[in-house]
Specification:
This protein has about 350 residues and is of the alpha+beta class. It has helices at about 95-100, 125-135, 160-170, 190-200, 275-285, 345-349; strands spanning about 45-50, 60-65, 70-75, 80-85, 110-115, 145-150, 155, 180-185, 205-210, 220-225, 230-240, 250-260, 260-270, 300-305, 310-315, 315, 325, 325-330. The longest helix has 13 residues, at about 275-285. It starts with about 45 loop residues before the first strand and ends with a helix. It catalyses: ATP + (deoxyribonucleotide)n-3'-hydroxyl + 5'-phospho-(deoxyribonucleotide)m = (deoxyribonucleotide)n+m + AMP + diphosphate.
Length: about 350
């Protein structure tokens, strides 16, 4: 049975009308051809820098921040590959997305985007995606929101401005679709109004992208993310054992980057299911080390090598530099070069 696909939560303006992307522009048939560029096996993804408020002005476009797994969809005459930022082939894990990619009618292309599962209100649900993929299973319900086009029919587009890449993307993945591959639509609204609406609807946040910039791998200020609920990826560096807690974990010990070093930022206990605790206890015990990655006070801690990355939601920071009101959302893949929270980068924003 094919799972029912949910629609993303609509953003509304003051009159209650749904906000839509700008009208699609027709591709210019007179656009000159460019020299053939070989299709790359992998492109290092562009990463957004965090900011407390969105930039304003006509130079910026705004999209919903999706909370899922970043993927590059590679299409060529030989077939389709879904590639993680770390270069893993996850085609088998998202069969519906792969099938939809084969049916796009594209000869050769690379799409950048996010694989997500939507909840009943149309919000991306990272925990649901993690549960669907648990134990290396495949997810038929996941959909792919395409937000960039990096290569098309012999042309490397990474050196062109975002406005052109979006123009070509919207030709291939039109707005308003309901299939397994959809367009992450540009939202034509004032930045502050958009952020307020996103917060009202309980979305993860918004992403602002500079229209005139090329696609630059790594983190830069060309893409900026503003989160409605603070969150990030933190390294698990051990746990606090407990005889009363199921499987013996009272909380996970967390660390963030500080340049090339690690700094302890507190712990998390809420959001851990019995299944999570069982897996984490067994895995962290295999990673056990006598010397902690970061010095911390507390008796009976079990320290682990920095290998597992946890996605954490939190309400803010305490005066002593610890996360407040933490919620465990799931594990990130270290092979995907998940952006572990960097205190210097955040302070610089």
């Amino acid at each position: 049975m094919t799972p029912k696909r949910r629609s993303p939560l609509p953003l509304l303006d003051e009159s209650g009308a749904t906000l839509q992307s700008r009208p699609l522009r027709k591709r210019d048939p007179q656009q000159p051809g460019l020299p053939f560029d070989p299709m790359p096996d992998r492109i290092e993804p562009c990463l957004a820098s965090r900011r407390p408020a969105p930039p304003e002005g006509a130079d910026w476009l705004y999209e919903v921040k999706w909370d899922g797994h970043r993927l590059a969809v590679h299409i060529d005459p030989k077939g389709v590959r879904l590639v993680t930022p770390g270069g893993e082939d996850w085609t088998h894990r998202f069969p519906a997305i792969a099938a939809a990619a084969r049916n796009l009618g594209v000869n050769a292309a690379i799409f950048d985007g996010e694989a997500v599962i939507l909840d009943e209100d149309g919000r991306s649900d990272f925990a649901a995606l993690q549960n669907a993929l648990g134990g290396k299973r495949a997810s038929q319900e996941a959909i792919f929101f395409a937000f960039d086009l990096l290569y098309l029919d012999g042309q490397d587009l990474t050196g062109t401005e975002l406005s052109l890449r979006r123009h070509l993307l919207e030709d291939l993945v039109p707005a308003g679709g309901d299939g397994a591959i959809r367009l992450s639509e540009e939202l034509d609204i004032d930045a502050d109004e958009l952020l307020a609406e996103a917060r009202r609807l309980g979305l993860e946040g918004i992403v602002a992208k500079h229209r005139d910039r090329p696609y630059r791998s790594g983190r830069s200020d060309d893409w900026l993310q503003v989160e409605c609920i603070e969150g990030g990826s933190f390294m698990i560096v051990g746990y606090e054992p407990s005889d009363s807690a199921q499987s013996g974990i009272a909380s996970l010990l967390l660390a963030a980057r500080h340049g090339h070093d690690w700094v302890h930022v507190g712990s998390v206990a809420t959001g851990l299911s019995a299944k999570d605790v069982d897996y984490l206890r067994k895995t962290l015990d295999m990673l056990k080390t006598r010397k902690p990655v970061v010095p911390m006070k507390g008796k009976g801690y079990v320290f682990a090598l920095p290998t597992l990355i946890a996605e954490i939601e939190f309400s803010g920071w305490s005066e002593d530099g610890n996360l407040r009101q933490t919620l465990y959302k799931g594990l990130r893949k270290i092979q995907d070069n998940a952006a572990v929270y960097d205190m210097k980068q955040h302070a610089g924003g």
